Structures are given as C-alpha cells and as structure tokens.
Amino acid sequence: MVFVRYKSNRNVVYSCKYHVVWCPKYRRRVLVNGVDERLKDIIREVCAEIHADLIEMEVMPDHVHLLVEVDPQYGIHRAVRLIKGRSSRLLRGEYPWLKSRLPTLWTNSYFVSTVGGTPLKTVKQYIENQKHV
Predict the structure, then answer these.
(1) What residues does each domain of the chain span?
(2) Beta carbons of 38 and 93 less than 8 angstroms apart
(3) What is the pTM of this model?
(4) How does pLDDT run along the chain (133 residues), one tens digit per residue?
(5) CA pair distance 76, 67, nearest whole angstrom
(6) Which of 14, 74, 95, 126 is catalytic?
(7) For this structure, is 126 an active site residue?
(8) Labelling 34: which of 3, 12, 49, 116 has CA 20 to 30 A away?
C-alpha cells in the first residue's frame, strides 16, 4: 500500500510534485567548473524561500533536472520563472565568461510533468542516474 504525504496551506491540501527540465541557451555545456554547484545552492535557496520541497536535483553540463513539490496556488510556472531568472542573474554576475558565451543563460522554454501516476521512487532514481547515463 502506498501512502501519499499531503501538504497544506491555509485553504488547500495538496500533493503536487513536478519533474522539471530546462537547458542553457543553445544547449551549451556551461554548467561546469563550479557553476553547477553554485546553481544547486541558488535552487535550494529559492525553493526554501517559496516553501517548495526540493525532492531531487541533478545538474548536467547542458541541462537541469528537478523533482519539486510546489503549492498549487503559487504555481510551478512562477517557481520555474523565479529559479531561472535569479540563477541567470547571479551566475552571469559571478561567472563573467557566461556572458561572452551566451546572450542569455537559459532558453525561454522548459519541460514539466506531474508525477501523479509514477511512483516517486522511480522518478527519483531516474534523476539520480542522469550522471551515469
């Protein structure tokens, strides 16, 4: 038997877990040499700030995977926009070579999928194994 942990805010009880993937502009392999670790720190900070649960995260040289639970009233689109916006601004400020390689750090698009029917363990393993593929 599978038990789902529900979260709640003042007026909603929910379980909204999302698998999110996005890439740097032109799928450039720029998330290396410390940029990846700093990006992870920024993502953790933003998730804590908006009270989103960061369940799993993997940063590859040319894309990012997140498994995150977000309050439905806040919205996954706002969470992704905040993470991408803040990380772009901070990373381009801290790593000036990113400015010379790319007009913007991230593409405008991203992939998002709810994790409703898939066992959470399966999605976590998929994200964890990205570095080993």
Answers:
(1) 14-132
(2) no
(3) 0.87
(4) 455 678 888 888 888 999 999 999 999 999 999 999 999 999 999 999 999 999 999 999 999 999 999 999 999 999 999 999 999 999 999 999 999 889 999 999 999 999 876 677 777 788 888 877 6
(5) 11
(6) 126
(7) yes
(8) 49
